[in-house]
Amino acid sequence: MEELQLLPTQGVMHNPDVTGDTKIIWDRSKPDEIAAAEAVFDKLTSKGYAAYAVKKDGEKDKQLVKFDPNVEKIIFAPIPRMRGG
Amino acid sequence: MMTVDMSSSTSSVWANWTTTPASTTTYDCVWETWNQGTSASSGTYQYRYVFPESSPSQNSDVPRKKAEALLCSLLTSEQREQLEKQSAFIVKSELGKMYRIRRGSAQNIDELDAKGKPTHRLCIQCADELPVADLMAIQKLMLEMDEARLLKIAIRTPIR
C-alpha cells in the first residue's frame, strides 16, 4: 500500500476502524480546513477517544486534549471501546 | 472479467441465478447484462453473468494493508526490522519500562525486565473489529504516551 504523501502545510488525523483507518487531512494555511478537522477532533474526544500526536517520522510527540493544527499527525484511540482480555 | 453465456428456459435461469454465490456477482450487473442479452424466442432466453474483476477476498485485504501502513509509519527502522523478522517489536514506555508488542490481538504485550526477559503478559483489546496492526499501533502509542491508562485497562498476568 502506498505511503500517504502530504504537503509540508498539511497535517493528518488517523482514526483506526474496521476499514483500516479513516483519515482527515487539513491544510494549516486554510482556516476552513482547520475548523473542519477541529470539529472531528472535538467530536471524537468528546466521546472519550484519546488523541496522540506523533511527528512526521512516527516519533511520539504528545497526548492532545485540544486540537493543535500545527502537529503533523494525530492518531486516535477508541478508549471507551478498549478492554482487558 | 469473465462472461458466461447461457441459454436456458426461464425456470432454470431463475434457479441458476438464485444459486449463484453472492460473492461472485452483483445483482445489479446481473440484471443489466440479462436485459442486454435477452432475446425472446419461443420461451427461451439468453443471458450472461458478468463477474467483477476484483474478488471480495482482494477487497477484504485493504483494511489489513491500511493498518499495516499506519503501524509501520509509527515505527523506527529498527522496530520495523524487528517486526519483519520476529513478528514483534520493542517499545520503551512513558515510565521507562521496556515492552515487547507481538503481532496478535490477545495477550500480545510482554513486559520485559532489565535483561529483556518477559516478566508479565498484558492483554488490552478493542471491542471493535480493528485490524491487528491498528490494535498494535494503539498499544504502542498508549505505552509511549499514556501508560498509566493502559495499565488501568489491561489485564496483567505474571509469566511463570
Strand order of the largest sheet of chain A: 2-1-5-3-4
The count of strands of chain B amounts to 7
Order of helices and strands of chain A: EEHEEEE
Tell me the quaternary state. heterodimer
Strand tally of chain A: 6
Strand content of chain A: 35-45%
Strands ordered across the widest β-sheet of chain B: 3-4-5-6-7
Shape of chain A: globular
Can you tell me the residue ranges of chain B where pLDDT is under 50 for at least 5 consecutive residues?
Answer: 1-13, 20-57
Distance between the termini of chain A: 31 Å
Please state the CA-atom Rg of chain A, rounded to the nearest Å.
13 Å
Order of helices and strands of chain B: EHHEHHHEEEEHHE
What is the share of helical residues of chain B? 40-55%
Quickly count the helices of chain B: 7
* Overall pLDDT level of chain A: 94
Class of secondary structure makeup of chain A: alpha+beta
Mean pLDDT score of chain B, rounded? 77
| Helix and strand composition category of chain B | alpha+beta
Description:
The complex is a heterodimer of chains A (85) and B (160). Chain A is an alpha+beta fold and 85 residues long. Chain A has one helix at 31-46; strands spanning 10-17, 20-27, 50-54, 60-64, 73-77, 82-84. In chain A, strands 2-1-5-3-4 form a 5-stranded mixed β-sheet, covered by helices on one side. Chain B has 160 residues and is an alpha+beta fold. Chain B is built from 7 helices and 7 strands. Chain B has helices spanning 10-19, 27-37, 56-59, 62-73, 77-86, 132-145, 147-153, and strands at 3-9, 44-50, 88-92, 98-102, 109-112, 118-126, 155-158. A 5-stranded antiparallel β-sheet of chain B has the order 3-4-5-6-7. Classes of the chains: A alpha+beta (85), B alpha+beta (160). Chain A binds chain B through residues 1, 3-4, 14, 16-21, 50, 52, 54, 58-60, 62-63, 73, 75, 77-79, 81-85, and chain B through 62-70, 73-76, 106-107, 123-131, 134-135, 137-138, 141-142, 144-146, 149, 153-155.
